[in-house]
Amino acid sequence: MSERIANDKLRGKVMSPEGAAQFVNAGDKVGISGFTGAGYPKALPTAIAERAKAAHDKGDDFKIDLFTGASTAPDCDGVLAEANAINFRTPYQSDPSMRNSINAAQMKYADIHLSHSGMYMQQGFFGQLDVAIVEAVRITEEGHIIPSSAVGNNVEYLDAAQRIIIEVNSWQSEHLEGMHDIWRMPQLPNRIPVPITSPGQRIGSPWIDIDLDKVVAVVETNSPDRNAPFKPADEVSQKIASNFLDFLEGEVAAGRLSYDGYIMQSGVGNVPNAVMAGLLDSKFENIQAYTEVIQDGMVDLIDAGKMTVASATAFSLSPEYAERMNDQAEKYRDSIILRPQQISNHPEVIRRVGLIATNGMIEADIYGNINSTNVSGTRMMNGIGGSGDFTRNGYISSFISPSVAKDGAISAIVPFASHIDHTEHDVMVVITEYGYADLRGLTPRDRAKKMIAIAHPDYRPLLEEYYERANKGKFLHTPHDLPTAFSFHTNLADKGSMKG
Amino acid sequence: MSERIANDKLRGKVMSPEGAAQFVNAGDKVGISGFTGAGYPKALPTAIAERAKAAHDKGDDFKIDLFTGASTAPDCDGVLAEANAINFRTPYQSDPSMRNSINAAQMKYADIHLSHSGMYMQQGFFGQLDVAIVEAVRITEEGHIIPSSAVGNNVEYLDAAQRIIIEVNSWQSEHLEGMHDIWRMPQLPNRIPVPITSPGQRIGSPWIDIDLDKVVAVVETNSPDRNAPFKPADEVSQKIASNFLDFLEGEVAAGRLSYDGYIMQSGVGNVPNAVMAGLLDSKFENIQAYTEVIQDGMVDLIDAGKMTVASATAFSLSPEYAERMNDQAEKYRDSIILRPQQISNHPEVIRRVGLIATNGMIEADIYGNINSTNVSGTRMMNGIGGSGDFTRNGYISSFISPSVAKDGAISAIVPFASHIDHTEHDVMVVITEYGYADLRGLTPRDRAKKMIAIAHPDYRPLLEEYYERANKGKFLHTPHDLPTAFSFHTNLADKGSMKG
């Protein structure tokens, strides 16, 4: 048995995944670790999926409600979705099989702000949690859990669950110990300020204390996280990154930012990684990150001495960088902090530290409303994730996207966003390869001009036509022509291109 | 000269409104006091409007950019709009003349969260403020300002402005002194937690300290606030109030609320007042309010011993109640606190105290997205006000509205909201006279069933028809039929009724 299980009582609970899965019953509400492919349980999901398939083969029902930190992996969300083992899922996912089930209305999915998801569990909005399944690097002598490569909603689920299953994964570096900062907000009506005033501050313990009597099983694993490689930055990504840096330089010139004061939040993806690569050669120094995931680009910035500290709730690294993190966790834990997602994404702290939020999008409309979730208003991609937490409360909020997708058939700028996740009241800057639209303090009419200017040239005349038609209406504060507001989307559906 | 001006230096600055208006130039950015018809300057707006009219008569330009706390009154927003004296206006208004100018695109209007408006000024997003014009109850010997019936963005504008004009209004009770709680958040990068953990806590001073060298004029006035009477609650309002109380009772039954733990936020209007009247006869005790305006119903709750404390940034009272407040301010200042709107509406404090947010709306769609601002997507009514501050961060967020307007020609529940100010991610409960839709933790499909059930019976079949048509699409997570998504609104435009 692994020396990583140092507590005697819990050593007595070690069993096979199949044995542990017997504690997960049909109809259970199950809260698991896992955030963007890091730190999810590696063995139980498959074992639960097998139980479900066996039950289904006998004609019995077997579905669970699954609560996570965020997205997981094919060997977690994927196997459970394929086994048709999930009734309800929240707060975020990005798995292809799961997405198909959701869009076929075969699985219920509630798309919730990541900072709210654990809190809703605490507040009783989801009912009683039955089981928590959490991956750990190690169990201490006292029975405390050292989380692995993600903290997510572990604390909330471990506190709320009636039964606990722990997976101890020896693939994860033991030197992650000391990187986590676990702090619990007292429950209503006793909430207090989160005592963080700068991204690098530690306020809690490096472990999670749990009720040992609730632990029904401990399972040993040795499996890697789901780490996907990033594509090298293409020309469009590099132009977007360059426009983003121009915007930052403009803020410095205007006296609203200093080269020594940039606090970064960044969504995941190739464009954000291009932005971080651009920062390597920029004048910005002592960059800090208060964000939800640590990406390759942040590791590079730390290595180059450009970033002093990165606070997040999880890793989202390429296989190469994940290996490096595992080898050198002892070094990186001086400059990386992993917190519960309720804290990494807490509106209070986000507003206080004054970060610049940068997230991707599906589309924006000419008035600056953003769709982050549903393609053409109906097809769920992943979910809102933490984009709302950071957009709403950041010092400056920005969205970055190529101006077109699918070889030009889809414009990222449309007359009316077909789903709205971030409203005109919250969106400050939108950036494409054609420039940036700084919408701060502007009226809808003035926003439209700026937004059309950063659309792809092929779409600018179509957007201008729409705006002119909208201006023939009676009310001109937010001009719209509702009968043709979704014409880009109906063109796409009918003719295969938003151009019609 | 009034004894209310106790500072010698400022006594030397007393002059006529016309004299003071000479310090306001064409093109100036002007920040004024005033929030929901309380505490706005009474003399300068008319004097500025007269200057503008005189300039216009000579063929000269004369417009200012006007920043307030929120809405003001006919003798402020009204006279300035009628004189065509405003170029740009933010963050909220409700004046009929101003609304017409905005919707005719003759005046620029930026609709901004009330908690963000003063902060944007501090952060330099609006450029340099030229003049602050602030109503006071009194100027102390040291030259501190005792604000009147609203605090609003006074602190931010007084700090930012190059020139200050003070109106000392002897209509306002001197006993308001002691009711205000003025606290400044240190500027980035030195922000700290707001040290409020319960609604009744005082953290600052009862006065605003200013740079006396910036004061260019002091004007004496004796004019009432704009206080509008409330209509007595009609049958529909009473049913909505009763459904809201049923919801609260359900939360108590579920263990998520106690009769001794209700913290109220309430938008302004007749339905909220009916809710407060309902609370008078309820089992709820020791109610607290952490809200933006003090309304008649809260005064009744305080008088009845049902409410222990109300924290807000301004009054919004009927003439009768305003008179009572002026007569008995000394008594009420034990249980009423007026704060800067950045604090009354601060996301951090709202989330911490755990309030239940209750606001009106123009329309909601079947998935729970809310339109608070633009009728049929294009006609600006007032603005988002503080509804986003409270909805996003409240323990529970709720919206209340009659199910129909204009004798049934307009449904408050529509297939697709024609403007979205609050997204599905933030909206928890929607209440009409037909019941409440508790949307917490539900998927879009399950939300649609609940929302259609609280629509007016005349509109339920039309909404069901839409939902069935939407379900013929390919993607069923958020079913929509985009070509007919705005059919209710186009029916209204073409045929005078959403029924078509």
Q: In brief, what are we looking at here?
A:
The structure is a homodimer of 500-residue chains. Chain A has 500 residues and is α/β, with parallel strands linked by helices. At the A-B interface, strand 4, helix 13, strand 18, strand 19 and helix 14 of A face strand 4, helix 13, strand 18, strand 19 and helix 14 of B.
Describe the structure.
2 copies of one chain form a homodimer. By secondary structure, chain A is α/β, with parallel strands linked by helices. Chain A folds into 2 domains: 2-221, Glutaconate Coenzyme A-transferase (3-Layer(aba) Sandwich); 235-455, Glutaconate Coenzyme A-transferase. In chain A, the strands form 6 sheets. In chain A, strands 1, 2, 3, 4, 5, 6, 7 and 8 form an 8-stranded mixed β-sheet that branches. In chain A, strands 14-12-10-9-15-20-24-25 form an 8-stranded mixed β-sheet, with helices on both faces. In chain A, strand 3 (86-90), helix 5 and strand 4 (108-109) form a beta-alpha-beta unit. In chain A, helix 3 packs parallel to helix 4, helix 8 packs across helix 9 (270-280) and helix 9 (270-280) packs parallel to helix 10 (296-303). The relative contact order of chain A is 0.11. The mean pLDDT of chain A is 97. At the A-B interface, strand 4, helix 13, strand 18, strand 19 and helix 14 of A face strand 4, helix 13, strand 18, strand 19 and helix 14 of B.
CATH superfamily of the largest domain in chain A: Glutaconate Coenzyme A-transferase
- Low-confidence runs of chain A: none
Q: Give the total of beta strands of chain A.
A: 25
Q: Class by helix and strand content of chain A?
A: alpha/beta
**% residues in beta strands of chain A:** 15-25%
Shape of chain A: globular
The top level CATH class name of the largest domain in chain A: Alpha Beta
Pfam family, one (chains A, B): AcetylCoA_hyd_C
Domain Acetyl-CoA hydrolase/transferase C-terminal (chains A, B): 324-466
Domain Acetyl-CoA hydrolase/transferase N-terminal (chains A, B): 10-220
GO molecular function, one term (chains A, B): acetate CoA-transferase activity
